Amino acid sequence: MSNIPLTRGFIYLIMGILFTYLAILSVDTTVWTLPTILFALVAAFDFRLAIRTFSLHRKIKKLQEQYKKSNSNDSQK
């Protein structure tokens, strides 16, 4: 259960790569078509969510380590 942010981060990263690939495939003569722009926007949103989720996972790990250290110090006293 503690790896949920990490798993979600990888899912968002894979979705971002997929939508980037779809945006590249949807380019016909110009980049400025509606499907291409929509795919690129969704990909950017997914990449942003992936980065935020990875940073959340890192913060949770850091807090868990601090909690373990404080509990081990309290039990030694």
Automatic annotation (TrEMBL):
Transmembrane among keywords: yes
- Protein name according to UniProt: DUF4305 domain-containing protein
Q: Which residues cross the membrane?
A: 9-26, 32-51
Which keywords does the record carry? Membrane, Transmembrane, Transmembrane helix
Q: Name one Pfam family in it.
A: DUF4305
User: Which organism's genome codes for this protein?
Assistant: Priestia veravalensis
At the top level of its lineage, which domain of life is listed?
Bacteria
